[in-house]
């Protein structure tokens, strides 16, 4: 018995020792998903060099640190704005802004000037980059293969691959000699590009992380292309073929790009920042100018920007490469202003202008310029104005300036969009010319009797025409259907001018008449922005002004504190709380005009109502024109109202 017990004890000890020294199942055996050649390498005991470990995907089971209550850069830890929010950012040339959202245009609306043909994955030829992108926008599928008109069914097409083990990104780029397989260089490789690469691999939320690895490390055990290209993506693309490709170079001992795709469709409950599309990113990835989310929502709600990104006044952070690139990204053009030029000098050089590959960015810029050229507004004809005398924009050497409650006389042709509405030979209201055959005024200034009204352009003295004055009869008056007379809600109207005989024009060409632009976004100008008002209303002495007066006012936030529930949606305030500048009776319907960073003037408000003209605590109330953009567009048509989003 004792011998049997000893034998059992020895057997137990041997079994226990075997379990202690047995190799781990997970450490030495190949991964079940590894490709065959990788499995063979493991079985042959070939030592694989250690690679950078990609940042892990934030899964629902991942525990992240508790989100702080506030952040130095973010306005909110959940931003519902995205690239499609055209109230704070521009739409792309193949999109248009409707009800605050960018929507896809039909491909036939794309410009045809200065474009290059594109070959699609469907072996069809497309006229331009814009046209193929419009198709992709509408179908949510990438069609572009490469620039060129050689689109044979059996011809080579652009393709992207991401190695499942190493994350290495490879491209096949067609060219006139057939094409070449290439790697992606380290230069400008960021999350925006990694997102696009992963979207191309059917991962709708893009990348979890991007990285780089030494070429020689991989080349030691993999057969790799010897050259790489730089890739510059903005994040809206659905394939790397749609990005800017340039600088094909020998890799030698350089670094090449890798990506790990995002695997989770929903963000964890304790996510540091939840993108509008549901993706989870870290706080370090927000407000840096790079589209980490894949829908740009990590850059749309920012108080400050980091890593040399540039903050637009609408709270959008844009990448530093977008500064002074001849393409407006901030709504007010601040990224192309002199301020941006001084900042850009201290940053990295812009993208190269010459490359063996055609750049889609060049065509996008050309498309924008073509669209912008279709509507000219907001820039007065300076040759008709005495610039030396108006350059100070209402500043006086006699102390505080008052406006139509004591404003500054304008020069005879200075305010070229100002009009006077004459009803039965009496002028009680003003208005603003927005181009074509259209004038905007206040609803309380008009009634549905077009024959009773005439519109006077380039009028300086209220009672007498000048050489440049033009008087035009009215064809129709469109009062906002929800206008409420006793509360001044929706106090806006469109005046349609009669056309000249045998022509589509309503005005004879006149250098003293210019159109003011119509804003499409209520975010274009922020509180405390300095704007101007004009009209023939009462002066400080209570008399009607004999000449057109104007002065500066500031936009005032939270006007409900002054007027309570009388202040309705679609209204705004301007002036100052002390009452030193105000619009008064007789100015109704006249323009409140704000100027952006590039000198373009927008009709920001229409003089509507107020209490105790020019008294402290009662700022003037205006109809906010941008609030009614869709209604204006509905009646006037796209070309008449929008310079960038048509």
From TrEMBL:
It comes from Oreochromis niloticus (Nile tilapia). Residues 339-360 are annotated as: Disordered. Pfam families: CFAI_FIMAC_N, Kazal_CFAI, Ldl_recept_a, Trypsin. InterPro entries: CFAI_FIMAC_N, CFAI_KAZAL, FacI_MAC, Kazal_dom, Kazal_dom_sf, LDL_receptor-like_sf, LDLR_class-A_CS, LDrepeatLR_classA_rpt. It comes from the Eukaryota. Residues 153-272 form the SRCR domain. The gene is cfi. One of its GO terms (molecular function) is serine-type endopeptidase activity. This is Complement factor I. The keyword Amino-acid biosynthesis does not apply. PANTHER family: ACROSIN-RELATED (PTHR24252), HYALIN (PTHR24252:SF7).
